[in-house]
Each structure stands twice: as structure tokens, then as C-alpha cells.
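User: For documentation purposes, I need each entry recorded in a consistent format: the amino acid sequence on its own, followed directly by the corresponding C-alpha cells. There are two entries in this batch. Please keep commentary to a minimum and don't merge the entries.

Assistant: Recorded as requested. Entry 1:
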Amino acid sequence: MFLPSDYDSVGRLKLPLLFWGVLILQARTWVLFVIAGASREQGSALLALFYPDRDTFWPGLLVGLPAAVAFMLSGRRQHWPVLWRAWRSVLVATQLLLLLWQALLWWQGEAVTGVTLALLIADVYALWWMLTSRRLHGCFQPEND
């Protein structure tokens, strides 16, 4: 089913590289927040560029929390197997929520730009991949399966 190189030295299935990209995509507001904090002089200008309406910044941080938790859980998934197994569903639901939120923002009159369109395409692809990837699904299964 999987290649020997797909397993780590302990025998657990390695998380695919695209999984980390999906987590960054889901936690994009957190990534921007950290970058803005690191560049103190231009931080507020950077946040204003991506979040001209400050009311969407805080929900963006909230929606990014499951991805941040997944980053922390991923290295210790063997210690919390039930939580880890359920977290795939949380990440899929979060991705669906991101898509619905983007549609709601557009419906409320937010401009459709190249960046928002690219994020929508990336969000749709991420959702499709999380639902169809056998390897990702295997990473969330108990080790004895």
C-alpha cells in the first residue's frame, strides 16, 4: 500500500509534505500575524494591506487555531491517538468553514481580487486533497491498523 520510505524510523506513516502546506494555508492569518510582529516598523502596514477591514482579522485567527493545534499535535500524535484521529475531521471542517467564509465575504460585497481568487482555489484544492488522500487518511489511523 505504502512505500517503506513513507514510514519514519519508529514505523509511523510520515505526514505528507502537502499536509504542512494545508496547515499553513489554514493558519494564514497566524503566519501573517507573526510576520507583522517580526517586522515592527511595517507590521501595521502589512496587516492593513491584507486585512483592510480589521473585523475579519480576529475571525481569521480563530479559524487558524485548529491548524496551529495540529502543528503541535503532529509530533506527539502517538500520545493522544484518539484526539489525533479526530483532528482530521476538525481540519476538514475548518477548511470547509474557510470556503464558506470566503463566499460570505464576497456575498457581502468584498472585492474579488487575484489574491482572494487564488486563496479560494487553494482552499478548494486543499479540501479535495484532505478528503481523497489515502496517505493522509492513513496518517490519522491508529498505528496498529
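Entry 2:
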Amino acid sequence: MDSEQRKRALALIQQALPDLEWTLQAPKVKRLSRDFHWFSPVLKQQLEHKQADAVVRPRSEEELKVLVKACVQHQLPLILRGGATGNYGQLVPLQGGILVDMTGFNQVLQLGEGVVRAQAGIRLADIETVTRPAGWELRCMPSTYRLASLGGLYGGGFGGIGSINYGPLAAPGNVLSIKVMTMEAEPRILQVPAPQALLLHHAYGSNGIVLEVELALAPTHRWIERLDVFDDFTDALDYANAFARSPGLVKRQLALLAAPIPSYFSHLNGHYQASQHAVISVIAQESEGLCAGLLMKHRGHGAVRQTADEARETNASLMEYCWNHTTLHALKVDNSLTYLQTAFDPANYRRQIIAMAALFGDEVISHIEFLRDNDGNITASGLQLVRYSTEERLNEIMQIFRDHDVKINNPHVFHIEDGKQGEIKPEVVSVKQCLDPNGLMNPGKLRGWDVRDTLALDNDPLLLTDR
């Protein structure tokens, strides 16, 4: 469908649904059609001129349902938008269409003993505002938790704060079920339990409209946030590694930041020297006493300390210097930087981290996040900063990592299979065929859809006939 056809279809839909909350002004539509894909100079160039034709903010499932019916009738693409904190252009429309702002779906619907069900548009911090007084908190959330939505985390996220204990979001037991609306002439509402629900996870909202997510929760602790500094990179790495591998030390977050990354944290400058390396940790109050001995052993020094309550009161949590917030802080100081996403071998990550840091020197600066993998192993993922020169050199750097047995989850591509998935997965395509048979959701993002005739697809990937 070309732009003129989309304009005609949009006009007919708007005329039929005048009571919806529409945004049609081109500058606002363009702004709402953006996320943080500009972290990548490659994506920034590729997606610069892509945007929706209109934005709609539905206020109820009924409003969303009539919009879906209209889009299917007129074969107009539909793209979901949450907090817009993603990094891969997940919400950037490749073929125009209607961008659906899901932030009106922002309620916690049910809170039980260690379980919460909430609507997809709710901000993650708002979930914890409800759960924390009852003694529960999220098991996994990105550093953008104050802005990121639950649906956005589900559609495009991986791990984050809490993953040192519970692994990434997709680890068994973290997601319990989802509620989804189909993209059909007569939309259906389906309850999909795990593990089938995870077939819609990290699919960029391309194979179903997630309305609600049911999550397992973690018990709350009195958390202490720390930033400790080291003159030697290996000392910092060994401290973080010992911290990560101490099972009795209760923790929520652990990140290693090689110099000069800490110097990019302008609000913290003055607490340490620009040449020093840092480890940011979130540790339970009852475990903090163990830090003194570990720091002394690894020649570290305390630089910043605050309670989580103090951090919430001032909106200045050290957690917001971790994960991809690190990249954001660095780009504010040096916009020539970009980043990688690497996954180290659980059995060899210390050796790999040291080897790659020595190989690249200042061209690739180590930012390491410690977490558990889906099998429960302590491991490390890199969100290294890269001094960008050319796309060719960036691809060369990623290949060098691969040649050293370090996996790359390429953050400089917008197709789902080219990034974290790494391959066309027939089961993910099967879900799209089941829930979005016309291929109208986020079209262009799922390579497998264009070759679905060559794949062995499951007609019932969500086991709906067994329900």
C-alpha cells in the first residue's frame, strides 16, 4: 500500500471513528514514531524518514477492538507504542500506518502472593509503587523502569535489574501468562499461559497485541546502592566476579564500568577520578557488611552510597547508570560513541572480558552486566561502548568478538531475526499467522513472514484447541 492509499484508508477510518483520541499533526506523529534507535548511527540513518501516518491512544479494549477491525478492513498497518525506550527501532513504522499508544492501559489488575497481573501500557515503576507496600518487587526490569512500559519490556526487552538473581525475563517462571488480542476482522481475546506466551516475547509487537502480562514477583529488601572504584581494571573485574558468585550475598544489580565510562556520569563527578574503574551494585542492607572485606581484598574504595529509599525520593538511583542507561549518559558527553551487545561464555567470561579489553584498548570500552542465564549459571553480558568510525569497522569489531567465541546480539539492525534471535524461528512466524493472518502488525520487522511459505508452520502454536 503506497502513501496515497494509506491516506485514503486513514481518512475513512478517522471518519468512522471520530471519538478516538487521534494525533494527526505531522511533527507530533514523527516524534511519537521514534524510540532510542539513534543510539546506533546505522539505525539512525536507516530509519530517519520512517514514521506513522497517525497516532491513536485507545482508552479501553473496546476502543482498541474497533480500531483493529477498521485497520483489518482497510488493510492498514498497526504498530504498538509503549514508553518508547527501546533501542532497535521496534516501534518505528517501516510502512506507515497507525501507531497505537498503549499508555492508556496502565492499571495493576491483580496482586497476589508473589504474583501481579497488569495492563501492558503501565510504567514498570508504577507496578512497584503498588507491589512494594505488600512486600513484593519486580524480578526483572530495565534501567529505564521509570518510563518503560510492561508491554514494551515484553515486546522488546531482555534482562535488567534483578537478572543477577532471576535471569532474563524469558527465564522459566518469570512470566506466567499473557492476555492478547488478535489482529483479525473479528478480534479475539485470548489467555495464553507460559511457555507458549513467550512466543510473543521479544517479537517487537509483530505477532500479537499484548494487553496484559502476569508476572512472578520477588520479595522486597532494604536495598543499598553503591558505586565503588578501582585503579586497576582487573581488580574491578575480580571484585565484581566475587560479588556475583557469592550466593549468600543478597543483591539486585551488579555492573562493571571501565574508565572512562564513570567520568561520563556528570552528576557523580567529584566522587572519584576520571581514570578509575567502577562497580555499581545494589545490595541488601543485611549483606552490605561483607563489602568491606571484598573491597579491601581487591584494592577498591567506596565512592557513592545511598539507600534505595533516598534514591526514590531524589529520582537519582544508581540503577539508572546501568544497562543501556550507561550508553545514554555517555552519548550526552560524546555523541560519537555507540554500543555493542555481547554475551560471554558462562564458563570463560572472565578470560574473555580481559582478552577483548586488551585487544581493542580504548576503541571498545568495557561495560559488563552480571546476570544468570536461562539455566541458572552466573554469566556476563557486555554493553560495551564503541568509538564509532564507520559501519564497516563496526561490523568488523562484531566479527572479531564472534571469532573469539563471544556471541553478538546485534543492536544495529531492525529485523527481529538479525538481532537477538539470530535466525528465523518458524514457531514465532506461526504465532503471527495465527494472531495476525493479514500481516498488518509492525510489517517489515519479521523476516520470516516473507518466507513463511517455505517454513513448516504449526497451525496451533499456542495450543488454543486444548483450552
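Summary note for entry 2:
The longest helix spans residues 3-16.
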